[in-house]
Amino acid sequence: MTASAQGVQTTSAKSSASHPERVFNFSAGPATMPESVLREVQDEMLCYPGAGASIMEISHRDKLFVDVLHDAESTIRELLKISDDYSVMFMQGGATLQFSAIPANLLRGSGKRAQYIQTGSWGKKAVKEAKKEGDVDLLYDAAESNYDHVPSASDLACPDDAAYMYYCSNETIQGVQFQSEPNCPDSVPLVSDASSDFLCRPLPIEKYGLLYACAQKNAGPAGVSVVIMRKDLLEKADPNIPGYLHFKNHHDNDSEWNTPPTFAIYVLGKVARWLRDDMGGLEKMESINREKSQQLYSVIDSSNGFYRGHAQTDCRSLMNVTFNLPSDDLTAKFISEAGEHKLAALKGHRSVGGIRASIYNAMPREGVNALASFMNDFASKNS
Amino acid sequence: MTASAQGVQTTSAKSSASHPERVFNFSAGPATMPESVLREVQDEMLCYPGAGASIMEISHRDKLFVDVLHDAESTIRELLKISDDYSVMFMQGGATLQFSAIPANLLRGSGKRAQYIQTGSWGKKAVKEAKKEGDVDLLYDAAESNYDHVPSASDLACPDDAAYMYYCSNETIQGVQFQSEPNCPDSVPLVSDASSDFLCRPLPIEKYGLLYACAQKNAGPAGVSVVIMRKDLLEKADPNIPGYLHFKNHHDNDSEWNTPPTFAIYVLGKVARWLRDDMGGLEKMESINREKSQQLYSVIDSSNGFYRGHAQTDCRSLMNVTFNLPSDDLTAKFISEAGEHKLAALKGHRSVGGIRASIYNAMPREGVNALASFMNDFASKNS
């Protein structure tokens, strides 16, 4: 990240004047966070209120930290309207650990087959790990079109006796997103990797068996994942799977089976509160996310083919706007000149190329405005 | 943690005046950290130099973060004089994940038996997980004396063909520490859980096959573990073990097989630098740790039996000083009155009871002085 310094504004009502060196950071993850949250963390760094120490320095069993953890959980429950039928757990190891934990808990020894929908890079990785734990079918694979779309409901025929049906709701690299849950038989738990669109919109949690997200895209720093799991599924696992992978250990001990990543949970809780209190909750956040993403997609669509979106239009992501320019030289020039306008971390993933603008909840409208202006200007100068 | 506020001093030459609300924090982990490190983290919270963003907000692939990771690794290599025969990896999941990862990599499918030395609570947990992965022998078990000692070399007879020999160098809960490595045949990899005494003294790394530590006791915040592994052992694992547990994935990708816990690694690196630059390295740190712990053990030994140390004298820990008082009432009174003197988090673990004073590297001498004075005073008033 090399963009130069100018004052920026955040969307947070609480934030004071922005730090003069901060840029608009379009990183796909770890990603931009609400500046007001960073300021709170900064203020409390040496002394968390009442602790006489940093939140990093106190025991995870200290009531002050236990309250932080419970508050993070209850704020997430409130945002997503999660009922008591579901456990909400905090774990380490990112989405990658979940790629193994999910089949270890729900597939190994079940005598059933798991059904995977593969719509991008993260789904592919999940399939690879699942195959180590049991029988896996590819219910859908979008590889032939270079993962530029998600299936329509009619493309899916999940058997009634599947161990579970798995999909990734938003593929960060490709910038494709399911607009709603794929059809899944009532008898089959629906499992979602929501890492890169968690908390970007309301979700009907009751449709899911398990939904998880690493925090570092839309919900906090790297090092913590949120796992939302229907409680009846907790009982399914063979107790001989590796202990850290066993969801029931985490559920039964309120995410303190072992020392949790205390600082990451503390920041995650602050981001959730910011979303509820400053942004007004998930309905409002979705509306803002639609406006922000539409602004960039409009620039793409009105560029007379100068910008070419990677995702098909009906499954464009609210979070990751992916597009290509006419040549690699122009792509490099775009990234370089964007940096001079304090627009940072726009390079696309090597497997897709081009540009990826990640505009998670914490990306302020001003950042999207600035990028849209820059894109229009760049296209008119270089067409 | 409820102790009240007064000015304190850290041992760091760099630190400015201490925050007035900070207490002396004897938590066993997460634990006290160098105040100068917390101040640096605070200063950089909104903008890591050159990033235009917090270190939490930038990609783990960004050169700025990759440099942070490499610097943390090289500082640890320098402190412990680790040769290129060893990999140094950063992982998530704490020691608990290692309890499974180690036997998954080195025992599963090996046709061998693993030999475990059980000298406290953490060793017991490790044994439980290892048994899920293969055949385990208890080479030594100190349960009968309530884990108040470690074996002498003559108590151990590890077979030459063991998969590995495992021990926990410092049992945090019981406060017992190996004074040097247990005898281990050359043909057998020695594996150590050094979570609670990592970086407290120099170590002959060449004696180890694998040594690991979660950071949150002596090396940083919760959420990252350091794994030091002889490179030839990386090749031993069945590739079908869960990917996150497979050390080779982490080694081959320079601890970026998946998104690492970036903020935790950043803080860990700062703690390592503090240890090298401000404290003068591990020889000096060990000398200070010996002085600090001896000061408290002297109070115990000269208290005419008022304080009774848990650990036998020849295996007392430099890090966790555990002792009992004549009654539970006096223990409660001790903890309460200590809190009034800004001496916090002294309650012993429920399995041992009494008091535990964890005096990791970052506990300043002033904190130990204050605790020793308080102990003498409390004993004279209550004997």
TrEMBL record, chains A, B:
L-glutamate binds at residue 61. Belongs to the class-V pyridoxal-phosphate-dependent aminotransferase family. SerC subfamily. Pyridoxal 5'-phosphate binds at residues 95-96, 122, 172, 193, 216, 258-259. Coiled coil: none annotated. PROSITE patterns: AA_TRANSFER_CLASS_5. It catalyses: 4-(phosphooxy)-L-threonine + 2-oxoglutarate = (R)-3-hydroxy-2-oxo-4-phosphooxybutanoate + L-glutamate; O-phospho-L-serine + 2-oxoglutarate = 3-phosphooxypyruvate + L-glutamate. Binds 1 pyridoxal phosphate per subunit. It is an enzyme of class 2 (transferase). Homodimer. Residues 23-371 form the Aminotransferase class V domain. Catalyzes the reversible conversion of 3-phosphohydroxypyruvate to phosphoserine and of 3-hydroxy-2-oxo-4-phosphonooxybutanoate to phosphohydroxythreonine. This is Phosphoserine aminotransferase. Its EC number is 2.6.1.52. It comes from Rhodopirellula bahusiensis. Gene3D superfamilies: Aspartate Aminotransferase, domain 1, Type I PLP-dependent aspartate aminotransferase-like (Major domain). Its cofactor is pyridoxal 5'-phosphate. Residues 1-18 have a biased composition (Polar residues).
